[in-house]
Amino acid sequence: MSPKILAELAPTGVLRAGINLSNFLLVSSRTPDGGPAGVAPDMARAVADRLGVPIRYVPYPRPGELADAAGTGAWDIGLIGAEPQRAEKIAFSPSYAEIQATYLVPPGSPITTQAEADQPGIRIAVAERAAYDLWLARNIRNATLMRAPSLDASFTLFMEQGLEALAGLRPKLISEAVKLPGARILDGSFMTVQQAIGTARANEAGAAFLRDFVEEAKISGLVARLIAKHEVQGLSVAPSA
């Protein structure tokens, strides 16, 4: 292993991996001592194993907080959705997994397509600073985004204020629809969240290592095996870059 890569990705001798706890597909359970368990923690551990160093998880309750800590020395790699806004401070690998984002609409809603959700007078509940919120902020032209601090809070906002749509990850919306008989989840997706591994932009050698590692992890079947191991529904292996 190149000393430069180790110096960039494990400067303390330990790989500190920033983990977004709010993504229930990637952090699907907890270890006996309360640590994160799932596809993302296992991917981070695989990186540490390749580097030949121990791992320490640095958990964040929301993705925006993980992104805010980029370049501060709080973490060495961060497992998070790759978005242009985040890429200003984070050098992302190609995505290793992807998740469809779509809309839930209430019973009797006239909205039937993704495009119809972006109309004047439509209010869309969304978890602030999620990868799909960042996408909506760039692409929604006519509807109004109503932000809540978490996934669960966005559903509460949607219900309590009688909003016209709820944006979210398809697997989460499927579970929310059960609570609202007659609600519908729109076909297709307005975007696909690309889950990647990032490091500070200054870490050029480390970023190149992560790019190669992720591509190999997809080709070798590692990502698919981790998804199967944790029995995650709604998470797909991303295509090769």
Give a brief rundown of this model:
This protein is an alpha/beta fold.
How far apart are the first and last residues' alpha carbons, in Å? 24 Å
Uncertain regions spanning at least 5 consecutive residues: none
Strand percentage lies at: 25-35%
Q: Describe the biggest sheet?
A: 11 strands, mixed
The shape is elongated
Q: What's the average pLDDT?
A: 95
Structural class: alpha/beta
Tally of helical runs? 8
Element-level helix/strand string:
HEEEHEHEEEEHEHEHEEHHE
Helix content: 25-40%
- Number-wise, the strands total 13
Rg, please? 18 Å
What does this structure look like?
There is one protein chain. The chain is α/β, with parallel strands linked by helices. It is 32% helix and 26% strand. Strands 1, 4, 5, 6, 7, 8, 9, 10, 11, 12 and 13 form an eleven-stranded mixed sheet that branches. A two-stranded antiparallel ribbon has the order 2-3. A hairpin with a 5-residue loop joins strand 2 and strand 3. It is elongated and about 60 Å long. The model has no long low-confidence stretch (mean pLDDT 95).
Q: What topology does this entry show?
A:
Blueprint: H1 3-9, E1 15-20, E2 29-30, E3 36-37, H2 39-51, E4 55-60, H3 63-68, E5 77-81, E6 90-92, E7 97-105, E8 123-127, H4 131-139, E9 144-148, H5 151-160, E10 165-169, H6 170-177, E11 184-185, E12 191-200, H7 204-219, H8 222-229, E13 236-237
Parallel strand pairs: 1-4, 1-5, 8-9, 8-10
Antiparallel strand pairs: 2-3, 5-12, 6-12, 7-10, 7-11, 7-12, 7-13
